[in-house]
Amino acid sequence: MRNKRDVHMTKETILANAKIILPDVVIPGSVVLRDGVIADIAEGTALPKGAIDCEGRTLAPGLVELHTDNLERHMKPRPKVDWPHRAAIIAHDRELAGTGITTVFDAIRVGSIVSDDGRKRYGKYARDMADEILMMRDSGALAISHHIHLRAEICSETLEEELAEFGPDDKVGIVSLMDHTPGQRQFRDVQKFEDYVCGKNGLPREDFGDYVTFLHGLQERLGAKHEAAAVAAAAHYGAALASHDDTTAEQVATSHGHGVRLAEFPTTREAAEACHAQEIATIMGAPNLVRGGSHSGNVAAKELAELDLLDILSSDYVPAALLLGAVQLGELWGDMARGLATVTRTPAHHVGLTDRGEIALGMRADLIEFEVMKDAPILRSVYAMGKRVA
C-alpha cells in the first residue's frame, strides 16, 4: 500500500450549463476548476457527470477591488468605538466574499494628526493594521486575496515617518495621493466638507472655521514635501501610483508628471478627459453610478461612462455596489463583457496582477455565479482559487 503522502489528491469542480463571461464575448458552456486554477473551458449546454448545474446563470471572473474604505468601517463601527483589528479584518473579508469580491486592495491611511489633543486629532494605525492583514493572509485565515493600498494623506503631520515604516518586502500594491484640504478637489464646496466632517466625526459647527484654518496651514507648510515623499515611496515599494480627486487638467498634468497610472474619482469631465489624453485609467465609484450622482456634488459616473471616459469601478464605501454597478454598465453599453471588465480584467491589469481577472486557461479559479432579477444581480456562489467561499 502506498503512503498517503504519495497520493496526489486533485481538487476539481465543474461548473456547467452557464453563461460564461469571456474577455470579449459571452458564451454558453462549462468551466473546470482544478487545483486552484481554470483547467478547461468548453462551449455548449452539456452537463458532465458530477458537474454543478448553473441552470443558465452567469459565470464571471471574481471581482477585483482597488479602493475600498470598508475595513475602516469595521474598525470603527461607531464614533469613538475601536473594534479589535483581527475581528474587523475577518468581518471585512467575509463581507467582501459575500459580494463577489475575490481580490481586494485594502485602503489604509498613512499620515496622521498627532499634535492636537482635541477633535482634530487622528492617530497612526497603518503599520499595525498592515501587519495584521499580512499575517492573517499568510496564515490562510482569509477567504479572499488581500493586498495593501496606502492612502497617503498629504494634509497631515506624520506622513513621511509612516511611509518610512514600509518597504519593498511589504509588497504594497497601490499608493494614492490624497489631498483633502477643503476648498479644492473633492471638497471644492466647503459647505459639503462641513457637513461631512461635522456629521461623520462629530466636530461642532462652531469649531469648523478653526479646523479649516488648521488644515490650510498644514497644506501650506507640508503639502509639497509630503506629495514628493509619497511619490518617492511608491517607486521604492514598486507600487502603482494613483491620484485622487483630480479636478483640473493642470492637476492631471501634475499627476502624469509624477508617474500616476490610476486616477481615483476624477471630480470633473475636464479631469477625466485629461486623464484619457495622458493614458491614465479613470476609477469611478460604483455608488455614484448606482445612486445616479456623486454625494459630494461632483461629476456623475454615468456621464463619464456615456462619454467612454470610465475605465474601472470601485465599490468605495458600499461593497455590494461593485457587481451592481458593473451590471448597470453592461446594460448601459449593451455589452455585459465590457461592463464586467471594469471590475475584473481592467483593474487587475493596471496593478500588474496577470493571473486573474479573466476566465481563461491557467488563470486563478476566482469566479462568481449570479443571475439578474429585474435590475439587481443576485449572487449564487463565489469561488476563490477553486474553493467556494460564499
The gist of it:
This protein has 390 residues and is an alpha/beta fold. The protein has helices spanning 70-75, 85-97, 126-138, 159-163, 190-201, 208-237, 249-258, 269-277, 286-291, 301-306, 321-333, 336-341, 345-350, and strands at 12-21, 26-34, 37-43, 52-53, 58-61, 63-68, 101-110, 145-153, 172-178, 240-244, 262-264, 281-285, 312-314, 367-373, 376-384, 387-388. Helix 8 links the parallel strand 11 and strand 12.
Task: Report what the structure shows.
With 390 residues, the protein is of the alpha/beta class. It has a single domain (62-357), classed as TIM Barrel, CATH 3.20.20.140. It has helices at 70-75, 85-97, 126-138, 159-163, 190-201, 208-237, 249-258, 269-277, 286-291, 301-306, 321-333, 336-341, 345-350, and strands spanning 12-21, 26-34, 37-43, 52-53, 58-61, 63-68, 101-110, 145-153, 172-178, 240-244, 262-264, 281-285, 312-314, 367-373, 376-384, 387-388. The strands form two sheets. Strands 1, 2, 3, 4, 5, 14, 15 and 16 form an eight-stranded mixed beta sheet that branches. Helix 7 links the parallel strand 10 (240-244) and strand 11. Helix 7 runs parallel beside helix 8. The longest helix has 30 residues, at 208-237.
